[in-house]
Amino acid sequence: MRHPDQLYIYGLLANDKNVIEKIYQNFFSKIKGMIIKNNGSSDDASDIFQEALITIYNKAKKTDFELTCPFEAFLWLICRKKWINVLNKNKNFRVTNIDEEGYNFKEDSLQLAEETILQEERLKLLSDKLALLGDACRQLLEYSWQGFSMQEVADHFGYSFGYARKKKSICVAKLISEIKQSPDYNILKW
Fold this sequence. Notes:
single chain; mainly alpha; Arc Repressor Mutant, subunit A; 2 domains
C-alpha cells in the first residue's frame, strides 16, 4: 500500500525546489549525525545524502515506484548502506555506531532499500566495465541496447547482419569477462 510520504518521491521526480528543501530540513541532520558517529565528516554526510537522493530519483524514474514505508526510514536505510560501503572500501575505518535511530523497519522496506542500492551498484559496475571496451564494441552495444533490431544495428554501422550479430556476441562476451574479473562481482550477487 502506498505510503503518504509518496509526495516526497513525486517532488523529487518533479524537481520541486520546495519539496527538496523540506527533505533537507527534515532529514539531513539525522543522516549527518549517523555518518559523523561513524568516522565521517559533514562533507561526507552531504555527499552521501545527495547520492541517496539521486539513487531514489533514479529508482523512481525507471519504475513505477511506490513508497510503502516512511520516506525518512527509506532514505536513512539507503544512506546507511552507502556509508557502510564507503567504510568497507576504506579499510582504515570501521562502523562503530550505526543503529536504527528508533525506526521500526518492515521487511519490505529493508528489501526495497537493499535492492535499490544493489541495482545501482550493478549498473555502475556495468558502466565502468563498458567504458573499458574499445569504442567499436561500446558503441555497438549501446546502440543495440536502445531497442533497435539487429538489422538496424547492422545498417547503422555499415555491417552485414551476420557480422553485426557476431561482433555483438564477441563484445558481450568481453563485457561479461570484464565484469566477472571484478572483485565486486561476487559482492554484488550477480
